[in-house]
Amino acid sequence: MSDSRNRRCCIERAAAIEKTLMQDSATEDTSQTMPEEMCIVVACNDDAFLRDNLFASQMVRDDIRVHVERGAASAAAAYNRGLDATTAPIVIFAHQDVYFPPGWDLLLGRTITNLERLDPDWTLVAPYGISERWQHVGDVWSTSLGRRLGTPFPVPVRAQSFDELVIVMRRSAGLRFDEALPGFHLYGTDIVQAALVRGYSAYVAWLPVVHNDKFHAVLGEDFTASYRYVWRKWRRRLPLRTPVQWVRWHGLSLGWCN
Ligand SMILES: [Mn+2]
């Protein structure tokens, strides 16, 4: 199936998500964070993917500014450069293969308003991750798996780790990605742990997106390098669970998927 046909298919399958969001947007709260207060930072190595997914999202076509980083050595380097090149108080770090359903920006605005009331120390929120109780939580359509992961949930859940597909950061917390973390893996776990040790909190909230990811048969050596770094850096906070696998004291989870 071609990429564009694949995307159309996923968008159709995500119609239920869109319908819910559109109905939800009808009761807009004017006090919420608005699209002009948000920007997107994306690390790109495939312009066609970027065009067919992230740039096909209505909120990108209408309102939200996108900063594209190319050629970075790591996700952390790309995202820190993106932070330095933008000023919006809410920064949405997104994969190039993510499609945001219409109304997602309004849903994010409302989610942030709710988080501010719930927990003024919140600093990160994402659509998919692992809860403090080691459970997968989120609601995402995954193309590689060919199914929707999760269902809507009304209350944000405290997280220990994020999937990297989308990470939303409150800039005023002053967090940075760790550029000593090599490659393009596990920075969702690292940034959550970095927030927690500084006394901030991180949540997974109902922010459904479509992830047009390609099938990953095996985790390569680049994953091993990221894993080893996270394992060493956070050894006092193990075990940690990431959306891909556990990070345990003995390190033997490496090579095993859960
Ligand atoms: Mn992706």
Walk me through what this model shows:
This protein has 258 residues and is an alpha/beta fold. The chain has a single domain, classed as Spore Coat Polysaccharide Biosynthesis Protein SpsA, Chain A (Alpha-Beta Complex), CATH 3.90.550. The protein has 8 helices and 15 strands. It has helices at 3-13, 15-25, 47-52, 58-62, 75-85, 104-118, 187-197, 221-233; strands at residues 38-44, 65-70, 90-94, 98-99, 122-126, 128-131, 136-138, 140-142, 147-149, 157-162, 166-170, 201-204, 209-211, 240-241, 246-247. The strands form 3 sheets. It has a 9-stranded mixed β-sheet. The chain has a 4-stranded mixed β-sheet with strand order 4-13-8-9, covered by helices on one side. The chain has a two-stranded antiparallel sheet with strand order 14-15. A hairpin with a 4-residue loop joins strand 6 (128-131) and strand 7 (136-138). It starts with a helix and ends in an 11-residue tail after the last strand.
- The N- and C-terminal alpha carbons lie at a distance of 28 Å
- Tally of individual domains: 1
What's the pLDDT, averaged over the residues? Answer: 88
CATH architecture: Alpha-Beta Complex
CATH topology: Spore Coat Polysaccharide Biosynthesis Protein SpsA, Chain A
Helix residue percentage: 25-40%
Query: Given the structure, what is the number of helices?
Result: 8
Radius of gyration: 17 Å
Beta-strand share of residues: 15-25%
- Return the structural class: alpha/beta
Q: Name the overall outline.
A: globular
| Count of beta strands | 15
